[in-house]
Amino acid sequence: MGALNFLYAFLMLLLVFIFQTTLTGLNRKVTARLQKRYGARWYQQFLDIFKALRKDSTSHGWVFDFGVIMALGGIMATVTFIPVAGFRAFPGTDNVFVISYLLAVGMLGMAMSAAGSGNPWASIGVGRALTNMLAYDIPLMVVIFTMIFAFDSASVGQLAEMQQGMGILGWNFFRMPLGGIVAVIALLGMLGKKPFDSFIAPAEIASGPMVEYGGKHLGFMFILHEFMTFIEVSLIINLFFGGGATIWEYMLKYAILYTFTNIISGVMPRFKIDQAVKYFYRVPLAMAIIQGLVVIFTGLGVTIWF
Amino acid sequence: MVLDNKDTRNIWEKIGDFFSANSIWMKWYCTGCGAIEMPPTMTSRFDMERLGMGPMATPRQADVLLITGYLSTKTLRRVIYSYEQMNSPRYVVGFGSCTINGGIYYDSYATINQLDKYLPVDLYIAGCMPRPEAIMNGFNTLIEMIKKGEANGWRHYQENYDWYKKNQLESLGEVIIHDEFHE
Amino acid sequence: MNLNLVIIVSVAFAIAAYLVSKVNDKAGAFMTVAGSMFALVTVFLLRNSIGSEISFLYFNFNLTVTGWYFSLVMLTAYSMTAFFNPFWMKKLIYPAGYNFLYLLSMAGTLGVFFAKDFITLFVFWETVVWSSAFIIQMGKSRQAAYVYYVISAIGSMATLFAIMFAYGTTGTFVINEAFKGLAGYPGRAIVIFITFIAAGMAKIGIFPFHVWLPSAHGSAPHTFSPVLSGGLVKMGAFVALLSVTAFPAYEIFKDMASFRGIPLPIYFMMALGAISIVAGTLMAIKQEDAKKLLAYSSVANGGYILIGLLMLDQVGFAGGMMHIVNHAVASAAAFLSIAAVAYRTGTTKMSEMGGMIHRMPVTYLVYLIAIISMAGIPPMGGFVSKWLIFQGLADKGLIFLATTAFFGSIGSFLYVFRPLSAVFLGQTFTRDLEKKEVGFFMMFPMLILTLLSLLTGVFPNIFLRVVVEIQSAFGMLPVTLAENTIVTSNGFLDAFRVFIVFGFGFAIAFVLFVIRRKSRKVELMDTFTSAEFIHTRELLHYSHSFYAPFERLYEKAPDTMKLYHKAAVKINELGNMAESAFFGIRPARTVLLVMGMVLIVIIAGGVL
């Protein structure tokens, strides 16, 4: 782990930010078209972030600031662990548990900072976000567990490489179809897309955790959101859609999956938080466990079975 | 408000103003009939997002405070509170003739007649109420003003805080808190 | 120094503490600090004499590396908590008795961990149970001590039965020999295994014995809860460990039906561990008292430890052993920080506090690091042990246990965040505005535990090397360790690297934050309230029934304690019925009836 790794990591952060922010901007346009609008400019997301960074900000004490820094720091560290089309900024750190739990540092930082603002709406939002996490993460983790059992590896990069070179049917999404569907549903929950977005409900709880952020804090939250989106979509791309042999293939798959979640989100109403929990524990969890039992006891899906 | 024609901004401020002009987040105060003109402005017919504008949930996040119509003295207190929670640079837009001169209820004991005695209004959109076309036109003007560095109401408010405070106090009077939480 | 000397000196410290406390209770409390620190240092120095055996009076000790590991965990909890004792003397009814029993129970645990034969184990076990039961009743309620004692008694009686049964079968009291001798009797072995492990499970607080934890942890004196949760609960883990290793459970049950390579009796115990994880997590989420919440979290973490230990493999077992240290350290730190808050505010109810971070920032940081470890988030220790347990489960494909383990792991984010948000964050209550941070003497143990949490997370191999020794001692394949890395068949974890990269991310974020203009500091009450004016701090603090929508989903779930109460009532009624039958108006009739039935049974038995 030399200085070069840190340089790579820094460049990776920069490129990820540019790529994901552009994609978010384009997706704002996609959503607008769904609603028969013209929509924002493709670079609108950059303008929003830089505008927020430019403004003055208010702070509610040191934990309000510290939480923001901890959140962005944890999320940025997680981004550098994500393998992208065979590239790893820090080789050997792409264990799936490390990634999914290091992501939690960022979330804890955000929750801490939000609750530290002293606004009850922020606490309500955080409570909902954590409940939402408890809902979507269990089915997803069960599927990932099945995958680790099946392929004897917990490295995201290795799991992605194992699916390559066998055509589209080599993807885990097709080898473990139930698990793949669960993962995409869980991705909607992770990204906070409708119907699982009750924790940022703007009209009901004044955007939940974000309620007290303004200026640079809000800008940080937007940057953090872009990075978090990248981590979550990348996990699913690597684990279920074969990653990418080249960076272009990876970016294409990524853009398609991310746009797909936005299209779903554009036509959905919103679940209440307890409805979301019930839904995740009824349908996706059952599917995930059935998928797990099939893989563990029959071995179907470990090899290509078409 | 005295508009300064000389541009004294440095390069960073100019860049900052470019961002501010192209990304305006609104917090609107549904004080009068004007609020009903906002939904058509936002949705597919007029599509405000083209200009980079959008609604926001709280004053902390917002850049521009919209006063959409009549302001009663009772609401004025809340509006000032919200305005002071916003982060600079912040802008105020008054909707309709009621924020300019009191409109048809100019002689009511419960409404205020001139909004800019209490808050630094950057832009008025005339009409009773202004149609979405007028609102879009107004926002375009606001964007141009911010780009040129002419929307300096928030600075004016800081510099003349005593004057604004005096007007606010005159209108609101002293209040002894006595609500359901206090004896 | 010899082990028997350590125990004798500890008991001597206990008696001295009692006598000194009679004169000056604060001085007696300082004796507990001295006594426990002495034991910690001397036991740590016993490292070199591992492997030796000592006899003393009727007791036989065996210095194993397992015992050494466990007793260090235990003594860390005891000695760090002892620093809080001097500040609680005024709140206790019997300060002298407290100090005496504190050190006596500590000496007892040493005997348990190093016991060579069953008699030694049992005597010292009972010493610990009795002395801790008397300490618990000095807290908020006597009821808690009853519950604790009853559950402990169930465990003790089960152990006694197992010991006697094993002795009857093999004719020896020496733990290893007695258990090894059972290999020829699988039928008896299963009874002995279940009764023996029952004591351990009762102590860890595995379902259905978990009821004592919340009541005892919740109402014990604030200075004893950290010891209960961080230390004494681990005694149960030790017995569970004995039941699978000294008792070669996998060998004895190897012919039985199994699920994915795990014999059914052991799988059943693991399933109980899984139920504890789920029950502990769900109950912890809905608690309103910070100490009860942490107690239920101990139930859940006990489930992890049990599952890890019972896997008895290369990775999962190491995870279970590592989790013992991590949970002890994190739980003791969390309980101590809540105790520190209670020392200033006088309450542990979460809805009666708020915003303590602005008054007690160091205590807040201690709690934060403790919960990061407890929830299993890198870069703290809890992550490493949970990672190992997950790897072990994934190796074997134990999907149902894994589902509950994931549930407990994500669920812990929910419950550990509650005290963080309700006690430390949010609005400071008006009556707490003038409160101060605790003094250095109380801060010191909390900081030490915090550093330990960080150490276990960044350099886990320091601890895992001892675990490797333990695994080799039991003849298992030890977990593979490289310089900084833990290697499993599914991949590897370099905790130090994760920590460095996290630091890198944090540094970038910090620089980005600092180069932007400084923010305007505003009052905590100056928050967005839809422009409503609110002047009461307490009303702007959201802490009561925090996860209400989620709690609503399982509010009708049965309460184990209520079921026990119902059972008690039924047994009582049964007794009353028997009493009225035999001592009622016509006892002769009942006696005749019973005699007649006995006759019928005898005759029927003879005919058949």
Written overview of the protein:
- The complex is a heterotrimer of chains A (306), B (183) and C (608).
- Chain A has helices spanning 3-34, 44-54, 62-81, 96-116, 120-151, 156-162, 172-175, 177-191, 202-205, 215-240, 247-266, 273-298; one strand at 58-59.
- By secondary structure, chain A is mainly alpha-helical.
- Chain A is globular and about 55 Å long.
- The N and C termini of chain A lie far apart (42 Å).
- Chain B contains 7 helices and 5 strands; from the N terminus they run αβαββαβαβααα.
- In chain B, helix 1 (11-22) packs antiparallel against helix 5 (132-148).
- Chain B is globular.
- In chain B, 40% of the residues are buried.
- In chain C, 69% of the residues lie in helices and 4% in strands.
- A 3-stranded antiparallel β-sheet of chain C has the order 5-6-7.
- Chains in contact: A-B, A-C, B-C.
- The interface between B and C is small, with 13 and 10 residues.
**Shape annotation of chain B:** globular
**What is the 3D form of chain C?**
globular
Biggest interface between chains: A-C, 89 and 78 residues
The amount of helix of chain B comes to 25-40%
In what range is the share of β-strand residues of chain B? 5-15%
Can you give the mean pLDDT of chain B? 83
Kindly report how far apart the N and C termini of chain B lie. Answer: 43 Å
Biggest pleated-sheet summary of chain B: 5 strands, parallel
Average pLDDT value of chain C? 84
- Low-confidence runs of at least 5 consecutive residues of chain B: none
**Rg for CA atoms of chain C:** 26 Å
Span from first to last CA of chain C?
Answer: 67 Å
Radius of gyration of CA atoms of chain B, rounded to a whole number: 17 Å
Q: Strand order, biggest sheet of chain C?
A: 5-6-7
| Percent range of helical residues of chain C | 55-70%
Tally of DSSP β-strands of chain B: 5
- Biggest sheet architecture of chain C: 3 strands, antiparallel
**Which stretches of chain C are low in confidence, meaning pLDDT under 50 for 5 or more residues running?**
none
Elements of chain B, N to C (H/E): HEHEEHEHEHHH
Oligomer: heterotrimer
